[in-house]
Design goal:
single chain; 125 residues; alpha+beta; 3 helices; 7 strands; binds ligand 9L3; binds magnesium ion
């Protein structure tokens, strides 16, 4: 599983989940499941095209691996926006947050451990 940290002008892009019911309303770094044969970068590029309608390149790892209950691992990568403006094609809403706002927002549990790593790159904390 791959997740993207898109940071522009010291703000991080967060996306609000619509599903499953227990995660709906919580915010996450957008991303999803790498398909067989896909590199992490391929998966990020495809997922962000599908979810946000943007082209990205990247990226360096950020934060630690997060083991998921089903045995998969979630990894975050810092990616750069190459073209397009993010639109919530698969989420309820998008939001750009600075370092202070990141502490106040209801993140999905899996993403919470990345906050200190993300904040290093954000304004306002
Ligand atoms: N997940 C957690 N944090 C994230 C992402 C992209 C995904 N930043 C978790 C939530 C779901 C599972 O991974 O339990 C599958 O995500 P998706 O394929 O529904 O996006
Ligand atoms: Mg997804």
């Amino acid at each position: 599983m791959v997740a993207a940290a898109i940071i522009v002008d010291g703000r991080l892009l967060l996306a609000q989940r619509t599903r499953p019911p227990e995660l709906a309303g919580l915010w996450e770094l957008p991303g999803g499941k790498a398909e067989a044969g896909e590199t992490a970068e391929d998966a990020l590029r495809r997922e962000l095209r599908e979810e946000l309608g943007v082209e990205v390149s990247g990226g360096d790892r950020i934060g630690d691996d997060v083991p998921l209950p089903d045995g998969r691992v979630l990894r975050a990568y810092r990616v750069e926006l190459v073209s397009g403006t993010p639109v919530a094609l698969d989420h309820a809403e998008l939001r750009w947050v600075d370092g202070r706002e990141l502490g106040d927002i209801d993140l999905v549990g899996n993403d919470r451990g990345w906050v200190p790593d993300l904040r290093v790159h954000l304004n306002g904390w």
